[in-house]
Structure formats: C-alpha cells, structure tokens
C-alpha cells in the first residue's frame, strides 16, 4: 500500500464531495423516489394492508433500503465519468495511491447516503413514524444501514468500472430498487403465493428489513440479525474483490 494512502484518499474524497455540494440535485433526486413511495403506500395502499401495526412503522425499513439503492447508482455514474475524462491515465504519472480513487468514491457515497437517509427518516416522522427504541437500538440500526450502504457501494463500483455507457453504469441499481418489493418490506410474506414467498423469505432484504423493524419496535431480533450481517459481509467481500480486480485491469 502506498505510504501516502490516507492523505491521497482524503484529498480525492474532498474532491468528490465538492461535486456533491455543487450538484445537490443528486441528493434531492435520491430521496424523491423513496419519499414518493412512502406517500403512495401510506396514504393510498396503507389502509388496505393489515400488518398489525401502524403502516409507516412497518414499511420504513424497506424504504430506507430503497433510499440506499437509489443513492449508490450515482456512485457508479460518478466513477464512470471520472474514468471517461481520463483521470486514471493522469494518476499513472503521479506518485499517489491509485486505490485512493475508489475509496474516495466509496466514502463520498457513504456521506451522501447518510444525508439522504436522515432526510427520509425526517419525512417519515412528519408522516407519523414513531419508535420507542433506545440509543443502543438506534445505534444497531445505524450500523446495519451503514454496513448495507458500504456493501452496495462496492457493488456499484463494479459497473462504474466496467460499464460501456453512462446509462448502463447507473441502470444496475434498478434491480436493487425493485428487490424490496419481493420481500417483507411492504407486506407480510405470509400473504404471498408459494414460490414468491420462498424467494422473499430467503433473500437478503427480508432479513435486513425484519431486523431493523424489530429494533424499531423493541422486539427480539432472533436469528434475523445474523442472517442480515452475513448477507452484508458476504456481499461486501465479494464486491470488494471483484471491484479491485476490475480496477487493477483498468490501471494496468
């Protein structure tokens, strides 16, 4: 590792963060989809869905994951544009840590997504979301959301490095945005037909959603938290290895 890795990454992170401050519309766009879904599901469909609790409390964890999925699409977009402008070629002639570029985009994604998540939770509070969770439960929720964001951000780095066009760089996030709809995020899985129910109960979103929901409701999390952590760590490790492999090929 380059001995100037930390200073190089910090400088590159400041650079990418400036792009966000100059185009706040990216954060606004990121929160528009989850907020619109909250409004639609709570005020249009919420009355017809029996979850045994206030519907905004039930569906907020799924909305938070959709917020993350919306945000990481911009990570792939920004990284693709950096490579398109030839920044990697310039780095080859400079004594800097090349992996600092990837980490800068990952850290920027974390910051942008935290801002988006705070905004979405704020809107949910205005819509009636309430939780009696204590400090430790909120810290656990924060940790799971940050770990999910980190894993999905490294996943976003892969199309950012390998996509053939700017459209395909960001389009990879669409399946991730759709995945919560095939989980326990919006309706109990017991209401789903057999094959759909099996998929919903065994995909990563359900364990993450159920864990966050239980923490908000001050209920036992059971084995869901271990499944959620296993999925997040597994995706993170695989995505990181594939992203670094693709980056080395680009930088070769």
UniProtKB/TrEMBL annotation:
Keywords: Antibiotic resistance, Cell membrane, Membrane, Transmembrane, Transmembrane helix, Transport
Keyword DNA-binding included in the entry's annotation: no
Bilayer-spanning residue ranges: 24-46, 58-80, 101-129, 135-157, 169-187, 225-247
Bilayer topology: Multi-pass membrane protein
All residue ranges annotated as the ABC transmembrane type-2 domain in the record: 25-250
Principal location listed in the UniProt entry: membrane
Cell inner membrane is among the record's keywords: no
UniProt cross-references to InterPro entries, sorted A to Z: ABC2_TM, ABC2_TM_bact-type, ABC_2_transport, Nod_factor_ABC_transporter
One Pfam family recorded for the sequence: ABC2_membrane
Subcellular localization: Cell membrane; Membrane
UniProt family annotation: Belongs to the ABC-2 integral membrane protein family.
UniProt name for this protein: Transport permease protein
């Amino acid at each position: 590792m380059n001995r100037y890795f930390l200073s190089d990454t910090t400088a590159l992170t400041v650079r990418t963060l400036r792009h966000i401050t100059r185009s706040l519309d990216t954060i606004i766009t990121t929160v528009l989809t989850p907020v619109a879904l909250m409004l639609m599901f709570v005020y249009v469909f919420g009355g017809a869905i029996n979850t045994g609790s206030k519907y905004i409390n039930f569906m907020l964890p799924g909305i938070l994951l959709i917020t993350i999925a919306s945000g990481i699409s911009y990570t792939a977009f920004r990284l693709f544009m950096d490579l398109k402008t030839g920044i990697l070629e310039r780095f080859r002639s400079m004594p800097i840590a090349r992996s600092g570029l990837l980490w800068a985009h990952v850290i920027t994604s974390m910051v942008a997504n935290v801002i988006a998540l705070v905004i979405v939770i704020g809107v949910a509070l205005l819509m009636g979301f309430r939780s009696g969770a204590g400090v430790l439960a909120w810290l656990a929720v924060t940790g799971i959301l940050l770990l999910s964001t980190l894993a999905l951000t490294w996943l976003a780095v892969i199309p950012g490095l390998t996509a053939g066009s700017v459209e395909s760089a960001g389009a990879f996030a669409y399946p991730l945005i759709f995945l919560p709809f095939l989980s326990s995020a919006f309706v109990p899985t017991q209401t789903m037909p057999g094959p759909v129910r099996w998929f919903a109960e065994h995909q990563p979103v359900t364990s993450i959603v159920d864990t966050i929901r239980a923490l908000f409701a001050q209920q036992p999390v059971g084995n869901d938290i271990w499944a959620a952590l296993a999925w997040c760590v597994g995706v993170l490790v695989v995505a990181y290895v594939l992203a670094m492999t693709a980056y080395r090929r680009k930088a070769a």
